[in-house]
Amino acid sequence: DKVLTELIEPYELRAAKLREFLEDVKPSLQYDIVPLVDPYGPSVTDPDLQCLVVSEETRRGGEAVNKKRLENGLPELALYEIFLMKDPDHRQNEEEKISSSSLRQRLLGTLLRPPRQDPALPSCPYVIGLTGGTGSGKTSIAKLLGQLGAFLIDADKLGHAVYVPGGPAYERVVAAFGAEILNEDGTINRKVLGAKVFGNQERLKSLTDIVWPEMARMVTEQIGEADAQG
């Protein structure tokens, strides 16, 4: 139930750091590093264990281990409790203790590794596509990117622009779906048009075959404009 599990370091790296720490503390120390595949690990089955180091937070876990050991016919472990170190610089939304969860939150928005150089990608302009359902945050992310200097292309606005009288798709859409999709002022009534294509894959394809290439062309033009602006 850890937060941001995607940012947890892989087991091999964590084990290597632990090994480095143990060797630094006492080079002659003998130890086994064992991956835990359940909450107990070898603590409830290893008869040679004598002590379990717990923290203020995990003492109840240590008591659960001893209960399980007794059920397995093994002697209880001595529980050695250590105190948690406080993080004097923790933020309001972070834990008061020094915590890997807080560290992972601070990693958000930083580069974990240098961007991979892909020779197939043009050096400029770099195009980022924002997709997602309603309320997924596209507008907020676009606004942040705009504040960082990105040139924003709003596909929704382009989608509206192709339908306006004189727009690149206007005549063909009217020809394909009839004058009944028009308002009194000659603009396309998108609700009426939507009702015509809703649930009809063939009609929907007819519409997208007209509209999407024009939108793609307009996007390409705007990318060119962004490139010209640097």
From TrEMBL:
State one molecular function term (GO): dephospho-CoA kinase activity
What keywords appear on the UniProt entry?
Answer: ATP-binding, Nucleotide-binding
User: Is ATP-binding there in the keyword field?
Assistant: yes
In terms of CDD domains, this protein maps to: DPCK
- Asked if the record carries the keyword ATP-binding, the reply is yes
Q: Name one GO biological process term.
A: coenzyme A biosynthetic process
Q: Which InterPro entries match?
A: Depp_CoAkinase, P-loop_NTPase, Rossmann-like_a/b/a_fold
Q: Which residues cross the membrane?
A: none
Query: Record's PANTHER family?
Result: BIFUNCTIONAL COENZYME A SYNTHASE-RELATED (PTHR10695:SF46), DEPHOSPHO-COA KINASE-RELATED (PTHR10695)
The identity of this protein, by name, is COASY synthase
